[in-house]
Amino acid sequence: MQKEITLSKRLTKIASFIDIAEPFADIGSDHAYLPCFLCQKHANTFAVAGEVNEGPFYSATYTVQACGLQDRVDVRLGDGLEVLKENERMQVVIAGMGGSLIRSILEKGKKKLNNVSRVIAQPNIDERDVRIALQEFSFQITEETILEDQGHIYEIIVAEQNKNNKKNSLTDRELFFGPYLLKNKTDIFYKKWKHNYLHHQRILDQMMRANVKNEQKIAQYSQEMQWIKEVLSDEAAADQRRHF
Ligand SMILES: C[S@@+](CC[C@H](N)C(=O)[O-])C[C@H]1O[C@@H](n2cnc3c(N)ncnc32)[C@H](O)[C@@H]1O
């Protein structure tokens, strides 16, 4: 009997941003769950599962075989976007790793990005790095979402190839919070930033107590705390309006 794949809430949401009419590559696909899930659901979908490490590469190969999907999920061993062939047009998913690693995968693979129509990124931390990289490599953020799954809060960032070379000009504040997340602040968004405010506060206190002070970092953290205070005050204002 063939294995049937079910996805976590986080991966289900990521899957919802993939256009199943076009092939996609899941870069860093330790068990190939996302490609196998979508190929099981949709008979004409084709996917690549890319892995840099041998252990996860073999796990991905195992899942694909157990699902009987060898003809539609191609498991490839390699670093980041190097698994994509020349002129292979793809959407790319890079999920479940830090934002700086996602940024470096985009940077190292920038030549391949010409053939990438859409990037769906889910950084576990340092989301700003991903937004900066997408902007740098001419991708336009078109959607963002934030969700909580098993006690963790995740952001998903979707970006399309900027065909018209329209100038990307996200402000520092938008790069920090996410332009779409800022426009539609949900309870989970507020929960994340309440937690991050306390984290920022602790780091700022440590920096202030240090013998050698990094004034640039202190100024950056102070500015970010000010922004967080502002967005949290939006929640307080909305709460007040609700009570009148
Ligand atoms: C924590 S797992 C996330 C798996 C899956 N994408 C998810 O979101 O559940 C990260 C995977 O990315 C792989 N990885 C890390 N750097 C990579 C790179 N440069 N290229 C391809 N895979 C990479 C790791 O080997 C690991 O299997």
Map the helices and strands:
Blueprint lengths: L8 H8 L7 E4 L5 H9 L5 E5 L2 H14 L5 E5 L12 E8 L1 H10 L7 E8 L3 H10 L2 E11 L2 E10 L10 H6 L1 H5 L3 H23 L5 H29 L1
Parallel strand pairs: 1-2, 1-4, 2-3, 4-5
Antiparallel strand pairs: 5-7, 6-7
Helix pairs in contact: 4-5, 8-9
What key phrases describe this protein's structure?
244 residues; alpha/beta; 2 domains; 7-stranded mixed beta sheet; 47% helix
3D architecture notes:
The chain is an alpha/beta fold and 244 residues long. It folds into two domains: 9-168, Rossmann fold, CATH 3.40.50.150; 187-243. The chain is 47% helix and 21% strand. It contains nine helices and seven strands; from the N terminus they run αβαβαββαβαββαααα. The protein has helices spanning 9-16, 33-41, 54-67, 99-108, 127-136, 172-177, 179-183, 187-209, 215-243; strands at residues 24-27, 47-51, 73-77, 90-97, 116-123, 139-149, 152-161. A seven-stranded mixed beta sheet has the order 3-2-1-4-5-7-6, with helices on both faces. Strand 4, helix 4 (99-108) and strand 5 form a beta-alpha-beta unit. The termini are far apart. S-adenosylmethionine is lined by residues 27-30, 50-53, 56, 79-80, 95-97, 101, 105.
